[in-house]
Amino acid sequence: MIALHRENVRVFAPATVANVGCGFDIFGFALNEPGDEVRLQVTDNPGVSIAKISGDGGLLPYQAQHNTAGRALQSMLDTLQADFGLEVEIRKKMPIGSGLGSSAASSVAAVFALNALLKEPLSNERLLPFALEGERIAAGGALHPDNVAACLYGGFVLIRDKSTYDIINIPTPPDLYCAVVHPRIEIITSEARKMLKNQLPLQQAITQWANVAGMVIALMTSDYDLLRRSLHDEVAEPDRAVLIPHYEALKKAALQKGASGFGISGSGPSVFAFCKGLPLAKKVGAAIRSVFQENEIGNEVYISDINKQGPKIISG
Amino acid sequence: MIALHRENVRVFAPATVANVGCGFDIFGFALNEPGDEVRLQVTDNPGVSIAKISGDGGLLPYQAQHNTAGRALQSMLDTLQADFGLEVEIRKKMPIGSGLGSSAASSVAAVFALNALLKEPLSNERLLPFALEGERIAAGGALHPDNVAACLYGGFVLIRDKSTYDIINIPTPPDLYCAVVHPRIEIITSEARKMLKNQLPLQQAITQWANVAGMVIALMTSDYDLLRRSLHDEVAEPDRAVLIPHYEALKKAALQKGASGFGISGSGPSVFAFCKGLPLAKKVGAAIRSVFQENEIGNEVYISDINKQGPKIISG
């Protein structure tokens, strides 16, 4: 019998940037916005019932087993052997298919909310697999915990070993800001993944892990110049950049304005730029946006520091 | 005209461990011992003359252009447009072909010594290419600055970009010790390099750079448990371990005694183990040694913390 602390709660979980330059498949970090809200209401009927989906989620399925939040909740209820059910309201406050971890935000908001209902809440380590169950729908079988881990833990994380969920926090400079721009074009993650080669030359791999090391040192010592030198992706960017219109012009605009690195968020189409301080991040965001505008591509700009908190209770 | 500060000097430069687990081709660190000594005496005759080689260097050539120290010195004299010459004495205090950066120690000792003679000494950044000229003899053309950089800069270094000599210091825990054991068997670097594959699977590369990131975080936050989890080499170790007799038994002995990671130094045959504190490092060194002893393989054990100073003037 699971004891409950409360009967309803509303939770926000943030968008996340995964891959992060040379850190393909191993790095992720959380933004302050955008993100998703999930409201849960305990009911007497066992199982998960999705009552409402609003915001940008108009096309998402209401059947719990096909919905990322629904599936994550059901797997957690099953493990808890809960004798109650949940009525779920999902408020998508971010674009789907944006490369900003939209499905991770819903899954994490859902399991974090259910956890907040419990008298004896579980640790993040125990919540992670439930949130990943939700991701399974979006990822088409292959589970990449980068978005989910960054969203749930907050901050900047390393997925050292995805099979054992060995997630390590990387300290970041307090004045590190990120300009994220989402162009309104569609890239399917599983398609973007198919663009990748299965093998890579040893020298290219060495360059990549040298830059990964450089990036970690840069973040941990607030060395923005080293960050800029290190934030190159030899492996995924060359293949994936072709899916994002005007990629080279976007990158050039960001770096010329003084960004400390530019890259694709997740598998795109969103792009991000690291900047020292909020004013510069705003300028860089505007410079990236203007390249999209000139080419008549609608877009959203988000400016955020690293969200160290992760998900949070809004009310309930 | 180059102004001199003194006419002779004796310098010690340390042995180094390169590759360092998952950090293939990008990490290196300096030991306190063993190492090489080089004594220089200014002469009126231009050019480099090697007067004496003692210690473990019985087979090294006396012709300056074929000797690592000699060649490094000559390239530096040429660049300085020196109107004087040098008489060189080399005291090899470490085994050649050990995987401990023997040629780097000689080259670095030589250029560091010449630099110490100058009224206006050059920066380490400017010395590095001269020391690498010496390495060219040992490396057979391909230049890998890992040993030279670790030896010259001291400490634990990342070679972020070998083409621009972008060398970054990685802070390490003050109680990090290393047990190094050199078995008296021979491995030629260029042969060991041939054992490596030119391509590697993307998943293997991802595992490697995840561990590289984990290792940097572990060193910078004194997280010995993370160091142990991260210090795996998926790329070079499987191919190179077969050249070192009883490799698996050595590794098991070190880890069972409590080492925070075990690997091949450079291209071998020396092996190293990281340990928290001097007493543990001594125990681990003895455990590794005993595996060699049981198999009647002669060996030397060196116990050292990370040598943050690099080369040093002994007298002159």
From TrEMBL, chains A, B:
**EC code(s) of this entry:** 2.7.1.39
Identify the HAMAP family for this entry.
Answer: Homoser_kinase
Q: Some GO term, biological process aspect, for this entry: which one?
A: threonine biosynthetic process
Q: Describe the location of the GHMP kinase C-terminal domain by residue ranges.
A: 216-292
> Which Pfam families does this entry report, sorted A to Z?
GHMP_kinases_C, GHMP_kinases_N
Record's protein name: Homoserine kinase
Q: Which GO terms describe its molecular function?
A: ATP binding; homoserine kinase activity
Enumerate the residues binding ATP: 95-105
Annotated localization: Cytoplasm
PROSITE patterns recorded: GHMP_KINASES_ATP (PS00627)
The record's top EC class is transferase
Q: Which UniProt keywords apply?
A: Amino-acid biosynthesis, ATP-binding, Cytoplasm, Kinase, Nucleotide-binding, Threonine biosynthesis, Transferase
Which InterPro entries does the entry mention? Answer: GHMP_kinase_C_dom, GHMP_kinase_C_sf, GHMP_kinase_N_dom, GHMP_knse_ATP-bd_CS, Homoserine_kinase, Ribosomal_Su5_D2-typ_SF, Ribsml_uS5_D2-typ_fold_subgr
Q: In which pathway does it act?
A: Amino-acid biosynthesis; L-threonine biosynthesis; L-threonine from L-aspartate: step 4/5
Q: Domain GHMP kinase N-terminal spans what residues?
A: 67-155
Q: Which SUPFAM superfamilies match?
A: GHMP Kinase, C-terminal domain, Ribosomal protein S5 domain 2-like
User: What's a single GO CC term here?
Assistant: cytoplasm
Q: What does this protein do?
A: Catalyzes the ATP-dependent phosphorylation of L-homoserine to L-homoserine phosphate.
Q: Which reaction does it catalyse?
A: L-homoserine + ATP = O-phospho-L-homoserine + ADP + H(+)
